[in-house]
Amino acid sequence: MLFSIIIPVYNRPQEIKELLGSLVQQTLKDFEVIIVEDGSTFTCEVAVGVYSHELKIHYYSISNVGQGFARNFGMERANGDYFILFDSDCIIPPQYLEVLKATIEKRKLDAHGGPDAADKDFSSFQKAINYSMTSFLTTGGIRGKTKDPSKYQARGYNMGLSNKAFKSTKGFIDPNRAEDIELSIRLKKLGFRLELVEEAYVYHKRRNTWESFLAQSFSFGQNRVHVSRFHPEAIKLVHWMPSLFLIGWVLTLLFFIMGISLFRWGLNLYVIWILLIFLDSSIKEKSIAVGALAVCTSFGQLSAYGLGLITAFIRKKFLRKT
């Protein structure tokens, strides 16, 4: 099996340098790397040149089309039997390809998705974001801890599909609005076997600021509604939980201002949740600082996602707007 690793990049040469450095360390060597420079002003051509003697790299520069279509561009030019998609801000553990190859062959997979994690040298903020994105107490484990691997919806930062599956689906149909979720659902509808491979994780070195993290979470909520235009079943009860979280604390605050005693019950629930987040994240990361930040990132992420989903749902359902 020949792997083709497809990486779209936009103005992030330093990230590509770290990512390629991690690919050099792979225990399985039978792969090619396809870099698609998606209309960047600051290109990664120099970083690619550093590793051109250690990796089989194909470098393309195109006008900006968005990450989904940039991935399609790369897959159309790939030579492999199986395509692996990474975001440029990922670092790949040495055993990744070896583990993935064995799992694909054992489970006879046509596509896969893998979880993300924070490496030990990441900043406290990066670890807090990772916690809020992956913890059962925040996302219910839907990003990599699901009990049924076949129900997993792959994310573009760490996913893959066979050459056959790509040719059948033609890849992504949207440049950057939950295009990975849409493709995951479409692959399964067409009968392709897509599952979570929990052991095929990546270290996701996000460069978010507070503002960009909240904006991204808001867009994730909106994008879930966008996917439902293609697949009405895409929004499930679990996706409404952040909206209920947001509505809950807003009502609790209003009841407090109005002097209604009912707010105490809601306040107690949120205090318990905050304590659980703090303790769980502090213990997992062995850092009180990460625990404190995780409370903030978790609260902000759920609220922003919930608001994004509500606003997009209203626009779609009642205002008939895209």
Report the sheet-strand fraction: 5-15%
Helix fraction, binned, reads 40-55%
Strand sequence of the main sheet, in spatial order?
A: 3-2-1-4-8-6-9
| SSE arrangement, N to C | EHEHEHEEHEEHHEHHEEHHHH
Number of strands: 10
Number of helices: 12
Q: Could you name the ranges where pLDDT drops below 50 across 5 or more consecutive residues? A: none
The computed structural class is: alpha/beta
The averaged pLDDT comes out at 94
Explain what you see.
The chain contains twelve helices and ten strands. The mean pLDDT is 94. The strands form two sheets. It has a seven-stranded mixed β-sheet with strand order 3-2-1-4-8-6-9. The chain has a three-stranded mixed β-sheet with strand order 5-10-7. It is globular and about 70 Å long. β1 (3-9), α1 (13-24) and β2 form a beta-alpha-beta unit. It is α/β, with parallel strands linked by helices. The protein is 52% helix and 14% strand.
Write the layout of secondary structure elements.
Layout: E1 3-9, H1 13-24, E2 31-38, H2 45-50, E3 57-62, H3 67-76, E4 82-86, E5 90-91, H4 96-107, E6 111-113, E7 116-117, H5 124-134, H6 136-139, E8 158-162, H7 163-169, H8 179-189, E9 194-196, E10 202-204, H9 210-228, H10 237-258, H11 263-285, H12 288-317
Parallel strand pairs: 1-2, 1-4, 2-3, 6-9, 7-10
Antiparallel strand pairs: 4-8, 5-10, 6-8
